[in-house]
Amino acid sequence: MSGIKLSIIGAGSAIFSLKLVGDLCKTKGSSGSSVSLMDIDEKRLNSVHLLAARYAAALGANLKFEKTTDMKRSIEGADFVINTALIGGHGQLDASRKAGEMHGYARGIDSQEFNMVSDYNTLSNYNQLKYFLEVAHNMEEICPNAWLLQSANPVFEGTTLISRYSDIKVIGFCHGHYGVEIVARSLGLDIKEVNWQVAGFNHNIWLTRFLYKDKDAYPLLDQWIEKEAMKWKPEDPFDDQMSPAAIDMYKFYGRMPIGDSIRNGSWKYHYHLEAKKKWYGEPWGGADSDLGWAWYQNYLKASTDKSFKLALDKSINLLQEFPPEVMSREQHIPFIDALINGNQGRFVLNIPNKGPIIPSIPEDVAVEVPVIVDQEGIHPEEINPPLPKRIMDMYLAPRRSRMEWALEAFVYGDKRILQEILVRDPRTKSFEQAEAVIDEILALPFNKEMKKHYEIKK
Amino acid sequence: MSGIKLSIIGAGSAIFSLKLVGDLCKTKGSSGSSVSLMDIDEKRLNSVHLLAARYAAALGANLKFEKTTDMKRSIEGADFVINTALIGGHGQLDASRKAGEMHGYARGIDSQEFNMVSDYNTLSNYNQLKYFLEVAHNMEEICPNAWLLQSANPVFEGTTLISRYSDIKVIGFCHGHYGVEIVARSLGLDIKEVNWQVAGFNHNIWLTRFLYKDKDAYPLLDQWIEKEAMKWKPEDPFDDQMSPAAIDMYKFYGRMPIGDSIRNGSWKYHYHLEAKKKWYGEPWGGADSDLGWAWYQNYLKASTDKSFKLALDKSINLLQEFPPEVMSREQHIPFIDALINGNQGRFVLNIPNKGPIIPSIPEDVAVEVPVIVDQEGIHPEEINPPLPKRIMDMYLAPRRSRMEWALEAFVYGDKRILQEILVRDPRTKSFEQAEAVIDEILALPFNKEMKKHYEIKK
Q1: Which of B268, B394, B423 faces A268 most closely, judged by CB atoms?
Q2: What is the largest distance, in Å, between two alpha-carbon atoms of chain A?
Q3: A112: nearest CA in chain B?
Q4: I need a labelling partner for B323 at 20 to 30 A (CA). Which of A62, A358, B147, B405 fits?
């Protein structure tokens, strides 16, 4: 991997960037690589740059670091670009959510059936989707052979959008499939003996194959449900893999939902805080309640504060904070290692459904599936057994429709599309309500360009 | 066509049956055919039998008639079976609707996005869908080579269901595409010079091709909208082809919806009576309002009363009531004539999407498309230009999902599926509401078998 250049867009998210840098340091053959850290927030950028350089030095890794606030400069000569930027940050997410709540849309208009994750905005996020394409189109000019590792949400919409409207090789990255390990651990299974597959869309994946020592392991899950499920309590708002919501979805759909898919159930689990508590546990009612999201905001703030503190206080031993023997669970660096150095690995990635990999889903839709990666490229596994018809028809089909509607709105502009999407939202009581909330969101100060783009056409 | 046997299931619907009989009388080569009228309502059956025989005699047609309350007997030796039966009649529709309204579902739970037609029940209609399959399976045993002309609603769900679960040749029949003639007439166009195509699903079709004297006729529609649309008033609740709803759908989707597709817009047009009046005109607010449906019930009652009167009063000249020179606009008899006598014709029929006829729709879904029929069979036209992406993604995709959900519920049983469908309904405010309304419907006296079928599985 000697001599590769990695550009991290939105690198100011310090913990995430340090994970990547740490993984790179611990990867044999990365010697001589350079990392360009890019963010428009200079304070965060400086802090993460300092930390990254000190951590690499402490590990004795031969890596070069640069920092820049200029995306185009960052991707110059890049072999891999990781886009993890959240345009406008959480402040804009909060403002959009508040605008929605003023008009009767609890948790904002982007909280939708099968997509309740609170920073996975697909409707009010013009700036974010536009930036996705901006990165890709700049790459076409500046580093046309580089890979784009799309890590910023919404990964499903983003990966599909970029792969349709750009020639850049794009892969969507998430880590939700590690939920399989939580299932295995909960049942007392040795993960090394578990033969598993997941398939679906990002944040919408299902445990299609689940064998333990070559035998169907679902009966073991049934036993756990009978004997252990009532004792379950969440450790934090994101701890939902074995929650009543997950079990209820499993009982209805016949397969276990994995990772953030559990947050993305139907309104049944999200009607109000009491419902959320019932299905995702006390006291928070999951990550996507006011309580759970406040917890997460505090967590983010604490992380950022900590990274500032680590950057300023040179007496702190970074190797203690980030143990050198442990790889992060992010897939990015092992993926690069597999592709460049042939260090073959199995990943769960978001790629266009060419083949198709999942039958009866169009080939220009990004699916999240297990793949083997080596120097020859990305080799999707055959999904066997296939996704059950009920999951295809009752879960993935409406989720795919929502993706298409969001992209239709974004690509075409015209606020009537957003209005029509909201007409299909159970929180909408009248067409006037849908009109009013869209106008409210378009009037937000950071949505000036969006407002122009969404003028009614013809 | 000599010697064919036609079985009409649900023949007690006198006006419809007399249309078919009249068409048959007026079709050369039908001489010697026999018609079996089947209904469980003996009073209606006797009346329609009397009328049919007298009308055929008045026309000098050589047709034989039989009547029976036994479906199996009726289809014995049949070449064509027309199923037009509404199991339980309007009384059961009304009871199901009332059960829905008790729990906050105005117009009943079956009134759904893109499917607001008040007798097109897909959820509470176990008895109806079950009868569809019963007819088909009896045909497999008794007249396996006969064609099943599926005329009873829901035609989309029914045709798809029967074609998936039976080997019988099934075609879905409707007449909604004649709305094209209303568009042409409204614009002052000679229909003979209009080159048109429609495509979609039953009650969900769009004017994909619209040429007048070989030139795009949509600009003529735009002119009409600018100059004439504001003067439009409905003549009856069903007169909606040029309504504000139709125009609004055209402006959003880029093509004109045709026939009952206009009733099947989104909630925007159906939130409440005022919305319905705005979009479908005063005073009724379209056919699917309380007012419009009451009008229709009166109309049906008057038709039935009239048919009884005609049957009893032999002094009435049937040729005056049903002029011999006019064919009804029902497609059934001309279709049979084309297939049997090679009297080639163009029809708009519901057939499985083999080919596919409409790309990206599975081949086991029934589509409504123009076809040429002759002695060799049914030849679908190439749909050109294709359906626009917005119609595919924002209208047909969610409508298809609803069809799949309804069939999943019907085929699998398990009331949790019905509950989950209602969770996706904007009228549902809590899961308990969805549970309660389903239990209410399952408790209706005519749903005993349905209730058993829908017990929670596992």
Answers
A1: B423
A2: 64
A3: B424
A4: B147
Q: Which domains does chain A have, with CATH numbers?
A: 5-85+125-173+313-341 (3.40.50.720), 175-289+365-411 (3.90.110)
CA–CA dist B392, B401 (Å, integer): 12
What is the pLDDT of chain A when averaged over all its residues?
96
What secondary structure letter does DSSP report for A328? P
Q: Residue B456 pLDDT > 90, yes or no? A: no
Residue among B105, B269, B296, B454 flagged as catalytic: B269
Token reading at B182 = 């209303």
pLDDT at A3: 82
| Res B388 pLDDT > 90 | yes
Contact A408 B423 (CB under 8 A): no
Residue B383 DSSP one-character state:
-
Active site residue A296: no
Residue B2 has a pLDDT of: 57
Residue type, B99: A
Q: Of the ranges A92-96, A314-318, B46-50, B450-454, which one carries the lowest mean pLDDT score? A: A314-318
Is A174 flagged in the annotation as binding?
A: yes
Q: What is the DSSP string of B302-329?
A: HHHHHHHHHHH-TTS-HHHHS-TTPPPS
Report whether A208 contacts A382 (CB < 8 A).
no
What pLDDT is attached to residue A62?
A: 94
Query: ipTM value of the model?
Result: 0.95
pLDDT tens readout for residues B224-243: 999 999 999 999 999 999 99
Measuring CA to CA, which residue among A314, A312, A208, A298 is closest to residue A253? Answer: A208
Helix (H/G/I), strand (E/B), else coil: B82: strand
C-alpha span between B429 and B457 (Å, rounded): 25
pLDDT in the model for residue A312: 87
Number of other residues whose CB lies within 10 A of the CB of residue A35: 28
φ, ψ for residue A453, nearest 5 deg: -60, -30
Q: Does the distance separating the beta carbons of B431 and A275 come in below 8 Å?
A: yes
Distance CA A296, CA A310 (A): 21
pLDDT band at A324 (very low <50, low <70, confident <90, very high): confident
Distance CA B112, CA B432 (A): 19
pLDDT tens, residue by residue, B117-156: 999 999 999 999 999 999 999 999 999 999 999 999 999 9
**B interface toward A at CB cutoff 8 Å?**
113, 251-252, 266-268, 271-272, 275, 360, 362, 389-390, 393-394, 397-398, 400-401, 404-405, 408, 412, 416-417, 420, 423-431, 458
Tokens of A178: 């590690």
Among B267, B269, B363, the strongest candidate for a mutation testing the A interface, having the largest count of A CBs within 10 A, is B267
Residue A115 DSSP one-character state: B
Long-range contacts of B293-302 (CB under 8 A, 24+ apart): B293/B118, B293/B237, B295/B236, B295/B237, B296/B118, B296/B237, B296/B238, B297/B90, B300/B90
Which residues of B line the annotated binding site for substrate? 153
